[in-house]
Amino acid sequence: MDTETLIDRLRTHLLELNLGPGDKIETELELAARFAVSRGAMREAIMHLCHQGLLERIKNRGTFIKKIAPGKLESDIAFCFQLSGFSFEELKETR
Q: Does pLDDT of 94 surpass 70?
């Protein structure tokens, strides 16, 4: 399974669990077994979601759903729209 597919499947799994900010997710080993991938592949998928600001790893405690501040989310979405070439008016329509 390629990394993008694994990341998509992990996102879907987390959504299906109805987890919220501060909730702990399964360990790398548990997730790797669930998706039948190596621990390294699962670590890479988790780190990708951490870099996106969706998960947070805390040493000796585990990996948690990260709370996203509304202002940061808004600016990230606006930035993505701008990179994609959408105008400010199109962005306002989307909101």
A: no
Residues 45 and 39 sit within 8 Å (Cβ to Cβ): no
Task: Say if residues 52 and 80 touch (Cβ distance below 8 Å).
Answer: no
Cα 15 to chain centroid, rounded: 10
Q: For the chain, first and last CA: distance in Å?
A: 35
Identify each DSSP E strand in 3-95 by its residue range. 55-58, 62-65
The model carries a pTM of: 0.76
DSSP 8-state assignment for residue 24? B
* Residue 90 DSSP SS3: helix
Spatial neighbors of 44 by CB under 8 A, at least 6 apart, are 3, 6
